[in-house]
């Protein structure tokens, strides 16, 4: 199969081979050019990068801009107000077409409304919403007044919501009465009520702004709760965007780390916007005048922030926003949407592709997908089989696939082929994009280039959309990312290797972070949820390989002496308990009740051995266990395997 670029594609591509050389020759000069070309600054910057307080970076120092102005107003001013910004498609089939001129009015009204609720520059706003246009309006309205948003994925529980609201000390929470999930309304505000009830005394939240979406009954806290239609609808539809410093915080987004406490990753304005706009243009090859772009991620994750809200809107692109699941009301729903809107650039996750493979190629085969010209993948390694299926059945056997490696922390795409430039290699993210530098290190921290040797991925130069820290915890930022291999290297937490051609292959996390359907979950967080159950004495969680979800959560628990093991019932109860504590995405696939856990003499749980059990393998070397008979006990005594 010839996977070299098609000359016709190359001729129109936004990315060029020269960009690699330009960035190589002058790293800062390259980024300064991207910043001036892709972003409108109200005050130009004086210095491209200030790395004097490394690892705390400042990009485009002295520059001022308003991110929402860049994503909305400037397109209207340039005469593109009538261009569609968002084709909204609700799960039930309700639709809404929002032009850039509409978006400008809606964002202005929302900004006026949240300002009227007392939200000022620097205040934090928590956003707990489904995939509806009001979510985008809210994020942009926050950006407009300089109030960092903290979007919390709608699948998180009240408990998870509470810790995130408290950590950021949010002043306002924006939510909806409910959301549509598989054809049925499900409550959403109820979780906000529960979250705020628990934190009542020391709570920072003064108002909850509620969009009516499902029209289900909600509890109402007078004085605190306000309806969107009461406070937004009558606001003036103009709002003066104030310029913000390039380093003004744009958002906080919580992600799982190796400890139980989620990390509030925060991003700032100028550098972030530059890199998301650049990558959406060069990696997704979006041409705003002609393409229809669709990213199927949820806005609750970084992919939704960078590649639904900020990247495509900064570029003035037209995109689809879809509320629902891929199989409601039928398994061809996504392909129907591509056909309907003539989607030309499509960005999704390997777990979705593997699910579609299982459902069968005849389903997309019933739809006209001829508009598709670029495909993207993100969230976890895409296995070559899924890559080939994706290209053949969704990409008309011609669309280049960009396998994009990046993280919540990196803010934007870092390693990926450039369509029209790179000869593709199914299964590999290939190489750092122009302006980004990566290496693979061995255990001693030495870079190597030999093929097929496994090491650790590190980034070697600061980049504009890098995280600026962990909210409220600068030490943890240094320790987590800049200490494993010394302060010169950003440690990504991923294993990687090169192939014979020099392509980089990502091999999954090397720390205690799991990747389930592209969602990051920490083993420690799930373990602490399990031990918070009155029946559980100890718990160990591992991510076991799973054909569809990449990894699946497998938990091993020791019950307390006084707890009764009711077999299946206990297992179900524990699974549900995790869903309640963290959210349904964290629900273990398996819970195994065991008499002991394998521990080293220093008391560290040997997850490697538990992984062998969870993946049905012969158990590996047990010689470092304090008690080497434990593994036999575990295998014999497993009572709760589901
Ligand atoms: C994994 C999602 C292989 C990786 C944007 C990373 C990938 C983590 C890829 C970040 C890819 C993401 N190939 N692995 N193309 N993309 N990952 O923060 O382990 O939710 O560290 O950001 O996902 O997940 P996060």
UniProtKB/TrEMBL annotation:
Residues 17-71 form the Acetyl-coenzyme A synthetase N-terminal domain. Its cofactor is Mg(2+). PROSITE patterns: AMP_BINDING (PS00455). Gene3D superfamilies: 3.30.300.30, N-terminal domain of ligase-like. Residues 525-604 form the AMP-binding enzyme C-terminal domain. Keywords: Acetylation, ATP-binding, Ligase, Magnesium, Metal-binding, Nucleotide-binding. GO terms for cellular component: cytosol. Residues 78-471 form the AMP-dependent synthetase/ligase domain. ATP binds at residues 379-381, 403-408, 494, 509, 520. Coiled coil: none annotated. It comes from the Bacteria. It catalyses: acetate + ATP + CoA = acetyl-CoA + AMP + diphosphate. Mg(2+) binds at residues 531, 533, 536. GO terms for molecular function: acetate-CoA ligase activity; AMP binding; ATP binding; metal ion binding. Catalyzes the conversion of acetate into acetyl-CoA (AcCoA), an essential intermediate at the junction of anabolic and catabolic pathways. AcsA undergoes a two-step reaction. In the first half reaction, AcsA combines acetate with ATP to form acetyl-adenylate (AcAMP) intermediate. In the second half reaction, it can then transfer the acetyl group from AcAMP to the sulfhydryl group of CoA, forming the product AcCoA. Belongs to the ATP-dependent AMP-binding enzyme family. NCBIfam families: Ac_CoA_lig_AcsA, PRK00174.1. This is Acetyl-coenzyme A synthetase. It comes from Phycicoccus flavus. The gene is acs.
């Amino acid at each position: 199969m010839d996977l070299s670029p098609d000359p016709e594609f190359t001729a129109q591509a936004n990315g060029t081979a020269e960009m690699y050389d330009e960035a190589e020759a002058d790293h800062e000069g390259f980024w300064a050019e991207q910043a001036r070309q892709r972003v409108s600054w109200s005050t130009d910057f004086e210095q491209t990068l200030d790395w004097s307080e490394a690892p705390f970076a400042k990009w485009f120092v002295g520059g001022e801009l308003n991110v929402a102005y860049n994503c909305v107003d400037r397109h209207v001013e340039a005469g593109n107000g009538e261009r569609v910004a968002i084709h909204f498609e609700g799960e039930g089939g309700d639709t809404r077409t929002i032009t850039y001129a509409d978006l400008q009015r809606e964002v202005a009204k929302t900004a006026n409304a949240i300002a009227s609720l007392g939200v000022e520059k620097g205040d934090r706003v928590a956003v707990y919403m489904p995939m509806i246009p009001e979510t985008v309006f809210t994020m942009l309205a926050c950006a407009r007044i300089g109030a960092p948003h903290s979007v919390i994925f709608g699948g998180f529980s009240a408990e998870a919501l509470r810790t995130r609201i408290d950590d950021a000390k949010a002043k306002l929470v924006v939510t909806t009465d409910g959301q549509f999930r598989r054809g049925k309304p499900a409550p959403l505000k109820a979780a906000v009520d529960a979250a705020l009830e628990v934190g009542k005394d020391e709570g920072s939240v003064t108002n909850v702004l509620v969009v009516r979406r499902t029209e289900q009954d909600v509890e109402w806290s007078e004085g605190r709760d306000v309806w969107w239609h009461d406070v937004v609808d009558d606001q003036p539809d103009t709002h003066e965007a104030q310029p913000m410093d390039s380093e003004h915080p744009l958002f906080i987004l919580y992600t799982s780390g190796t400890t139980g406490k989620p990390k509030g990753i925060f991003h700032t304005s100028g550098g972030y916007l530059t890199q998301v706009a650049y990558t959406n243009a060069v990696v997704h090859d979006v041409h705003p005048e002609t393409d229809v772009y669709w990213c199927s991620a949820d806005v609750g994750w970084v992919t939704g922030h960078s590649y639904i809200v900020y990247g495509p809107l900064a570029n003035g692109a037209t995109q689809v926003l879809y509320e629902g699941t891929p199989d409601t009301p039928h398994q061809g729903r996504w392909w129907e949407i591509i056909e309907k809107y003539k989607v030309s650039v499509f960005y999704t996750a390997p777990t979705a592709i593997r699910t579609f493979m299982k459902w069968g190629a005849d389903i997309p085969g019933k739809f006209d997908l001829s508009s598709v010209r670029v495909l993207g993948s993100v969230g976890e390694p895409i296995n070559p089989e899924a890559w080939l299926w994706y290209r053949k059945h969704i990409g008309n056997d011609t669309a280049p696939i960009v396998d994009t490696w990046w993280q919540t922390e990196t803010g934007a795409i870092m390693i990926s082929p450039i369509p029209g430039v790179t000869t593709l290699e199914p299964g590999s993210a290939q190489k750092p994009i122009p302006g980004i530098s990566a290496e693979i290190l061995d255990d001693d921290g030495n870079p190597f280039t030999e093929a097929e040797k496994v090491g650790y991925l590190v980034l070697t130069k600061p980049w504009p959309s890098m995280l600026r820290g962990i909210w409220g915890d600068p030490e943890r930022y240094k320790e987590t990312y800049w200490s494993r291999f010394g302060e010169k290297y950003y440690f990504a937490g991923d294993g990687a290797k090169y192939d014979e051609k020099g392509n980089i292959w990502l091999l999954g996390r090397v720390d205690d972070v799991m990747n389930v359907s592209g969602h990051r979950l920490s083993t420690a967080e799930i373990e602490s949820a399990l031990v918070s159950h009155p029946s559980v004495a100890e718990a160990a969680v591992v991510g076991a390989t799973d054909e569809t979800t990449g990894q699946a959560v497998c938990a091993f628990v020791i019950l307390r002496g006084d707890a009764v093991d009711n077999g299946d019932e206990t297992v179900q109860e524990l699974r549900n308990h995790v869903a309640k504590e963290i959210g349904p995405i964290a629900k273990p696939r398996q819970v195994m009740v065991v008499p002991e856990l394998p521990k080293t003499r220093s008391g560290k749980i040997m997850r490697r051995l538990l992984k062998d059990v969870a993946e049905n393998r012969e158990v590996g070397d047990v010689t470092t266990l304090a008690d080497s008979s434990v593994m036999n006990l575990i295998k014999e005594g497993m009572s709760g395997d589901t």
